[in-house]
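quick one before i forget lol
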Amino acid sequence: MGAGLRQKSEFDQLLVHSVDRALEDVLGAGFREAFYKYLERDFQTTRTALPDRIDAFLSALSMCLGHTASLVMGRAIAKRLYEELGIQFIEKPGYSLLNYVTDAEHVLRDPDGTPIAKRL
């Protein structure tokens, strides 16, 4: 497996771990497990597919919690992810979890697009 794919896989694992921890810390383990069942049943998305289906995850979160609470939960997940990556989290008005994840991916790359191996 190439370094880029390995790092993408590691980033995805950190994202899923961050979602797990934030959901459990804020809403409890019971909610987290019930939410993943709902996500799979109604959005055909598994926990491990979250990195590629953030849109479905955010829709499900909004349906469960409401729009404002889902934005708050998205920020909690982003803060956890940034902490795991060693990146300073700066809250940005209008940002969703998808924006924060995209920014984190960009921060982890050199200006020429080469992944920074030491970060992951």
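fyi The CA atoms of residues 20 and 106 lie 23 Å apart.
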